[in-house]
Amino acid sequence: MDRGTWFVLLGVVLAWAAGCATPLTVDYDYDTTYDFSKLKTFAWAPSPPGNQMEEFGEKRFQGALTSQLQAKGYSPAAESPDFLISVAGIKKTVESGRVGVGASVSVPVGSHGSVSLGGGKSKPRTKQEGELTVLFTERASGKLLWKGMAAAEIKPTQSPEEQQKQINAVIAELLKNFPPKPAR
Fold it and tell me: 3-state SS of 39-51?
């Protein structure tokens, strides 16, 4: 195989492998009757029960949320914030197809026949996925105002800087539709 063909084949394989990566999925919901223009300040609420996020990861998500909310004009407030934010993360192992390996041997029988013998094994492909839930709750009433959810594959070999870059992208996508636009 010449070099040109090898590089084309490698490019096709890499493009296929990239296409198999789990994309980021984002969803959100909110109280359609609430006037979000009243919100100016925020603070952090304790994480809800069932949060599986590690301490460093939670700090990275809180930092990304804080900086991106500040860029939208919201301010952190230690006393009497308008809304509280809580984040929760869940990790789960997901099976995504199977990899099979097999072998067979054909044994000639007579002048025109053959018998095939073979076998194989398959192994599930597993990966870690993370689900993030962000809740914005009105401090005064405790009423849920906005909920954002994101899910993507977790790459365990990333450096802390790479993790922060990915977290920033997830939060930017999650907050793209916050605050909700008023109905016309």
Answer: CCEEEECCCCCCC
Are 147 and 135 spatial neighbours (Cβ–Cβ below 8 Å)?
A: yes
Q: Identity (one letter) of the amino acid at 166?
A: Q
- The average pLDDT across 109-117 equals 67
User: For the chain, what are the domain ranges?
Assistant: 22-95+124-177
Residue 168 and residue 150 in contact, taking contact as beta carbons nearer than 8 Å: no
Name the β-bridge partners of 41.
75
**CATH of span 22-95+124-177:** 3.30.160.670
Q: Which residues contact 106 (CB under 8 A, 6 or more apart)?
A: 114, 115, 116, 117
Higher pLDDT, 44 or 106: 44
